[in-house]
Amino acid sequence: AIVDAVARALADGPLTGRHILITSGPTHEPIDPVRYIANRSSGAQGTAIAAALAGMGARVTFVTGPAAVPPPQGVAVVRVETAAQMAQAVEAALPADAAVFAAAVADWHVVGAGASKLKKDGSGKPPALAFAENPDILKTVAHRPDRPRLVIGFAAETDDVVRNATDKRARKGCDWILANDVRPETGIMGGTDNALTLITAEGAEDWPRMTKDQAARRLAHRIAEALA
Amino acid sequence: AIVDAVARALADGPLTGRHILITSGPTHEPIDPVRYIANRSSGAQGTAIAAALAGMGARVTFVTGPAAVPPPQGVAVVRVETAAQMAQAVEAALPADAAVFAAAVADWHVVGAGASKLKKDGSGKPPALAFAENPDILKTVAHRPDRPRLVIGFAAETDDVVRNATDKRARKGCDWILANDVRPETGIMGGTDNALTLITAEGAEDWPRMTKDQAARRLAHRIAEALA
User: Fold this and answer.
1) Residue B121 distance to chain A (closest CA, Å)
2) Do B38 and A34 touch (CB under 8 A)?
3) Cα–Cα distance for residue pair B99/B72, rounded to 1 Å
4) For domain B2-108+129-227, is the CATH number 3.40.50.10300?
5) Taking 90 as the threshold, does the pLDDT of residue B121 lie above it?
6) Is the Cβ pair B34, A104 closer than 8 Å?
7) Where are the domains of chain B?
8) A55: phi then psi, degrees, rounded to nearest 5
9) Which of A119, A148, B68, B167 is 20 to 30 Å from B6 by CA-CA measure?
10) CB B119 within 8 A of CB B35
11) Cα–chain-centroid distance for residue A20?
12) How many CB pairs under 8 A join A and B?
């Protein structure tokens, strides 16, 4: 508690008095009690962003799926597992001055994921699963009348990174997109570095490869400028 | 290194000179570069079994999927991600005096999991995925002419635990099955306790609920008796 108080005192900064919402980590969508569909996300970049924003004085609500890295100190942590739970937690955390959607959210969930383990039926074919689209959290929040002044999405891409991310920014109605190339050979997924491109109304700005902590601080400063 | 040497010296025991193969943790089957299908398994029970066997002097090869708990000290660790990789690692680790298949292995993998991220196509439907059955590691090893003298499988069940596990023992051709009830309300999956039923040619033996460490030591003693 003393450490927290000291951290808060030191954290008085350019974002003091602001509430910022961050989503981070993967979602897990159950197939049955023992199987699920997951997105690859260690939660490292979202966690670093939350820490950087809290370090600049923001009040941070951190909505996290089952991530590999622990959540940062000094933020309000809301743990969820599925995309639907994340959407609910985000809605409950609004209003906010800014929102950063860094989580890797599943696009679909399995309809009627049951209480019994699915069994092989001898046909060599998997059981037929019915899928339904998950709520689009970024798009929904960006279109709310009481939306945060700054809504920031992420685009993890493997092809045509800038074009796909620019399209995504328009389609979702968000202010900024942070795009990165997550092909395995980049080593970004699960690694300590990131190489981001910031897509805004003004165009695309390539950031050099840097650590995820450095990228987080750079983003936090940009957010502070935008909210000033 | 000193700690390891001390551990080995202390570990001279009833399983000294025996090689035991253990699989543990989940497998992850890629859908595309950012998504995968996983089984729920913390790796806690497999890790505890490996530690108990090493503690009784066995030389342990520990083939593990991406588990939540770190592998134990004093064993040879082989890290894999998919069921196919696990099958290869198991084959490479044979011969062994006993094998304990504690991993939660995916029954199917996605055929042609690609290098590009799958995109929503606007139809509201997920991309069609083709699945193929994974190698049945337990059954394959149990039917090898040079099979370990003692082949032990696990059965994580949600219904008719003993009947399903007894059927599994016959179907796989293994010597023992350790069955447990993994319905979420038991708290076993991801928890510290386990409640196992040991299925052998002689029938079903219910073990009381105990910690996973205690269950591991009980199993290790039974293995030592069987190999004596």
Assistant:
1) 11
2) no
3) 17
4) yes
5) no
6) yes
7) 2-108+129-227
8) -65, -20
9) B68
10) no
11) 13
12) 84
User: Residue B185 gets which letter from DSSP?
Assistant: G
Residue B39 is among the residues annotated as catalytic for this protein: yes
Q: Are A179 and A155 in contact (CB under 8 A)?
A: yes
Chain B residues within 8 A of A120 when measuring between CB atoms: 107, 133
Sequence length of chain B is 228
What mean pLDDT value characterizes chain A? 91
What is each CA distance from B73 to A77, A126, B52, B60, B93, in whole angstroms? 33, 37, 11, 10, 18
Q: Count the Cβ atoms, other than its own, within 10 Å of residue B69.
A: 16
CB–CB of B27/B105 below 8 Å? Answer: yes
User: From the CA of B36, how many Å to the nearest CA of chain A?
Assistant: 5
Within 2-61 of B, beta carbons closer than 8 Å to A belong to 28, 31-40
Closest chain B C-alpha to A16 CA, distance in angstroms: 35
Return mean pLDDT, chain B. 91
A106: chain B residues, CB-CB within 8 Å: 35
Q: What does the pLDDT look like over B161-196, one tens digit per residue?
A: 999 999 999 999 999 999 988 888 888 888 899 999
CA distances to A59, A69, B144, B176 from B20, in Å: 52, 32, 16, 15
pLDDT at A218: 97
The residues, ordered by sequence, that sit 6+ positions from A19 with a Cβ below 8 Å of its Cβ are A58, A59, A60, A61, A95, A96, A97
* Cβ separation A38–B39 shorter than 8 A: no
Contact B33 A183 (CB under 8 A): yes
Looking at chain B, the number of H-run helices and the number of E-run strands are 6, 14
Q: Rounded to a whole number, what is the distance in Å from the CA of A123 to chain B's nearest CA?
A: 10
Predicted pLDDT of residue A11: 56
* Subunit contact A33:B158, Cβ cutoff 8 A: yes
Which tokens hold the place of B55?
């503690």
Handedness of CA A41, A47, A53, A58 (dihedral sign): positive
Does the ipTM exceed 0.90? no
> Quick check: A24 pLDDT over 80?
yes
CB-nearest to B158 from A115, A156, A183 is A115
Question: Which residue, among A131, A84, A205, has the nearest Cα to B118 in the 3D structure?
Answer: A131
Residue A12 and residue A20: Cα distance in Å, rounded?
Answer: 15
